[in-house]
């Protein structure tokens, strides 16, 4: 597989079009009056203009809470959009601690400059984004939704 | 147009044969990137450097390195000569006198120098001769919708500090300035008009003489962003009649870390300084300081001396090649690029369509594929382009985009390279599985 094909795997091109979770309504973008258990974060990559607003909904309290929904709105390259879509499919139903664990391992793979290959057992479709770590300029694109999710999740604790 | 000396010997655009010879002077161009010959189409961001420029910098450090304008030893005199000769060379390149050229770090620093100096003329105890630069409540600073952030944000900040109002000339769908709207925007309130000669996104070449006349008719000072014109066409600041002009060395074969501000001599000598400290003063007491005339007045601290020497080598290289010939060559490349892009399904070129004058660059949108992905795809073929908003967010927003892909040429690009680029662009949508026109 060429380096380019390893970056743009079929799963990624499809996820970039599917955009699971990309249903945050326009009037929710401001994130005003969020109920308890809901967090929201806006992330912008000023270099290329990739942008996302991501909302995390949780059920339960404290460390026992679990993610019950992810909703986002965004605009950006196929890597950033696919990554947001994959994240949305991956984390709904998981406990807050598990989600933080996934974000940590995803970040580790992304920062590895191609040295780490993601474990598909753990990261599911997000493993297809492993190739991004060989392209330092694109790591921010892949991380955008995950950074937003981490911040939003922290607001729910 | 003013012809530089070399233009008297050759007419018409450069030829492909000459360009291939020129390429030998740019060692960086001869390399493989991702298994393909490098096609460098990002000179709008920064240009590559010929050997003569790199040698000028090295020669300075090997033979003459010393502080300038200080000390009486022989090396200091030699370094000062190099530094001031470089100033005269770069000044002559744009048709200015040597005391009208101030060194800065880059164009951004130059535009900030002007905006901050105007700001310093607007508050506190201001000498009489500096009041002509003052702006305040009720005054307007006029820019355009196509500006690079470097020629927008400093003016926003000046307005915020002084209470003046920022206004702008809108652009039309084809990227050209709306001259009808412009006519109504020049009023007795307009104190400063800052605009770009050539757009770094659409390649539009603005009618500088006409706009400058409109500004002068209402008594406004004219600041020209010449970043994308000084490297690519014959720039004569006197013929254009602008009051200030700003450009960056690194976009015109010189190293990073040096740029210049041109200002009419009587204006520079009256303008309050921006950065203050050593090298720009006459007498200093514990209470106050007197300032040297321009250009020293605006060159506080130790300057970019080797870069100035190399900047002179860069403009010599350009002059010897002939700016008018370079301009014609790049115009032809730009037209070829735009015509080729227009023929590819799903591509929208920003700015004027083929057949209309533009600089040798083209920014475009690929329907269904984000610019960042386009750039990545082209990079895999060794083609270097710029992606993003190119520091012109308002322009992109006006054209309904957040990002675009830009290919920009220079004197060392060949028609073959433009064709390789067009072939690669035609492969973008198929690769990403996008079909339809
Ligand atoms: C039109 C224009 N103005 C200003 C600048 C800023 O130049 P620099 O980054 O060298 O200060 C650029 C360069 O990107 C430009 O294209």
UniProtKB/TrEMBL annotation, chain A:
Residues 36-141 form the NIF system FeS cluster assembly NifU N-terminal domain. InterPro entries: NIF_FeS_clus_asmbl_NifU_N. It comes from Arthrobacter livingstonensis. GO terms for biological process: iron-sulfur cluster assembly. The lineage of its organism: Bacteria, Bacillati, Actinomycetota, Actinomycetes, Micrococcales. This is SUF system NifU family Fe-S cluster assembly protein. One of its GO terms (molecular function) is iron-sulfur cluster binding. Pfam families: NifU_N (PF01592).
